Amino acid sequence: MERLIVVLLFAVSAVGIYVLTSSLLSALFIGLLVGLVAVGTVAVL
Question: Where are the transmembrane segments (predicted)?
Fold first, then answer.
């Protein structure tokens, strides 16, 4: 269940940044950042 949450957060943030900036590299970077924060949050829970 936690993995699903992390994947969804990564996908939504990456797609959102890509739509806003049209830059694949920054979309992946922001997506990874959000994914890392989500993994840390889930680990704390």
Answer: 26-44
What distance in Å separates the CA atoms of residue 10 and residue 3, rounded to the nearest whole number?
Answer: 11
Token look-up 């590299």 returns 25
| Integer-rounded Cα radius of gyration of the chain | 11
Question: What is the 3-state composition of the chain as percent helix, strand, coil, each rounded to the nearest 5?
Answer: 90, 0, 10
Structure token pair of residue 40: 């840390």
Whole-number Å distance between alpha carbons of 25 and 3? 23
